[in-house]
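ZP: hey, is the zinc ion complex queued? I don't see it on the tracker
AM: it wasn't, my bad. submitting now with these inputs:
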Amino acid sequence: MATIVDIRGRKVWDSRGRATVEAEITLKNGRQGRAIAPAGASTGAGEAKSIDVAKAVAAINGRIRTALIGSDPRDQATLDARLVKLDGTADRSRLGGNAIVAVSLACAHAAAAAARKPLWQHLAGERKVALPVPQIQIFGGGAHAGARVDIQDYMVICTGAGSFAESLEWTAEIYRAAGARMARKGALQGVADEGGWWPAFKSNEEGLAELTGAIADAGFKPGTDAAIALDIAANQFYRDGRYRLAVENRSLSAEQLHAMLLSWIERYPIVSIEDPFAEHDAEAMASFTRTAGSRVQVVGDDFFVTSAARVAAAAAQGACNTVLLKPNQVGTLTETLACWEAAKAAGYGAIVSARSGETEDVSIVHLAVGWGVPQLKVGSFARSERMAKWNEGLRIEEALGAAALPYPARKLFRRLGQK
Ligand code: PGA
Ligand code: ZN
């Protein structure tokens, strides 16, 4: 058995030039596992808390190292439980959510390295797997673009593509077509935090018209070949019971926001809407899911914060129908997997997601494939912290070859977006 003989934490830097934490685990046979914690900008209130990077690194090199040395890295659930207990807080603020997620992921990498398997294969075991369907950002807004528009992500899903590779080919065309449209308008201002075009729009709806136009400009049929996914990230512009759309200089009640989103669904090829209301408003989420849930995915991000208990509670109420899975939101890999299990038990869909602050770490692609999560969201189609993940998906698709389950895009989205 290859036990853990060393754990090292170090300070590294993320895609926003902010410090973050890397954990490196060494096994008795010399094999290693390594992972880096990402960081959000539009975080939910119930998330695991990242702490000062120097303190998180010290926690890894001190208490965590002492607690885990001599353990078997294959026993992920036991190791994660030990991390949770050692921290002892509800929000992971003692050892740090950043320290804990880096160590938890590094353990999984070490176990895969010990088995001489890629992480996705180590996680999948004997199960057959497919590549997940990407949601790829074309315009970035909200907290990722200086609130230039209120909506955070305008994304594309290549619902008609026959493979992961093909969906990237199509997205490349759409991304470039969107950039060309903005250049023609004199509105090209660079890229936002996740690589999407920085939007110089006069209204939130203009982004929908531009994205639909870009899909068509690229030679695809909007709604058939490629459709729109939105992350409203409504927490970010909710204050005192109102949703304040700064770019349009108006404020909406939950009912008015609900009506606005329905009118968008009527007029644009939208198949997925994330965090349409503030994180505390389960009633608004449930009401929207009742009305729109058969036509679009209603995705909870800040609303669920990757908590299995929150998913179970929301399911009892009929709030949302799809869960965003972000390991650093909940803390450990085991808890992330529990949330995916809760989603399946509720009949909900799921999307593995990166954060707005990312690195070259590609662990989440392996989680999506290995766990059989059918969708993946890692930002846009530019900046290497994003492209590293899409490119890893290409390598996995190639390695799977004919052993892969059918690519799920057409089946997943066949019934969505229909009027
Ligand atoms: P965050 O945003 O990483 O800044 O929280 C990503 C998202 O809202 O999906
Ligand atoms: Zn989100």
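AM: back. DSSP finds 14 helices and 14 strands in the chain.
ZP: great, adding it to the tracker
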